[in-house]
Amino acid sequence: MNVDSSQAFSILRTNVYKKKPSHQGLYKYDQETYDFLMDSFDLFPLACVVNNKFLAIHGGISPDLKTLEDIKKIDRYHEPPRSGLFCDILWSDPVDNDQGSLENGWRGNEVRGCSWFFGVDAVHRFLQRNNLISVIRAHEAQLDGYKMHRWKGSSDFPVVITIFSAPNYCDVYKNKGAVIKFENNTLNIQQFKDTPHPYLLPNFMDVFSWSIPFVTEKVTEMLYMLLRHEDQDQESGDEKINQEDIEKFKQITQSEKTKIFDKNKSLQKQLSKTGKEKLRSRLKFVATMMKMQKTLRSSNIFVFSEKKTKVLFNQKELVRINVCLKDCCSKEKKPLLMPCKSLII
Fold first, then answer.
1. Is residue 188 part of a domain?
2. Distance CA 252, CA 237 (A)
3. Segment 207-242, tens digit of pLDDT
4. What span, in angstroms and rounded, lies between the C-alpha atoms of 168 and 317?
5. Total structural domains within the chain
């Protein structure tokens, strides 16, 4: 990520714990890269102060948080603990009631299984002690992407603002996303909706690996249909030649002995002519395939569609397919009629 001004840009730490990497993480990268990224999270700051009036954190405040200096004293270069100030900054939540009232200002957070719920009195004491206006935090999905915690129906500036930037969280919540913009000491909230996920092939396959079995099937089908058509023509021709051979054999047996050599020689020429016709037919087939491949290469790119998914092939991929087709054409007749397993990935 490129940042124009490193002094005005901060990425805050969230409640992310190291865990076993997902299949997607290992497929796209590797274990070493995953560990490096997880270690980098330990370097993120836990909080920041915006315009000297707003404290930005992920979760919320803590009974152990008295001043901003307490945050600076935290050793953050490790996994978050299950209790204490480090944990509370990442895990605590504002109480969910209209009055924001809590006995003693705090209550155990049974929803999270750790940290605290904090109320309006605890927030007011912290803000006054540190000369701040509001706490801006995330950590909870909101239907509109944000929530102004105006406890006790106060018309004053909200002491807590929850901002949630992930629209349609987990593809379930159907919520909007939102961000806060500070411009000329003015706070603006911008909302946005989710967009469809980019299409991913099964098991994160690349386009060529996914499409080559389909292409192979279609190419093999084309080869089979062309060869079957040629074989049918040749078989019908062979039957006619066999009948002619029989008639000529009868003529030879009935002719004079002195003409047997000449007749046999004439018959051999006719049979050799039949072989040449077969060869010529094969050459025509190869020429047809070469012409088709030349057309594909000259177009540089072509599109296959299957189940509304477009698959693109560039020039390099076409050359690979062309080489495989030439290898198939160089084999005997029988393998050409079978699926080309060497192309299937």
1. yes
2. 22
3. 777 777 777 767 766 766 676 665 555 555 555 556
4. 38
5. 2
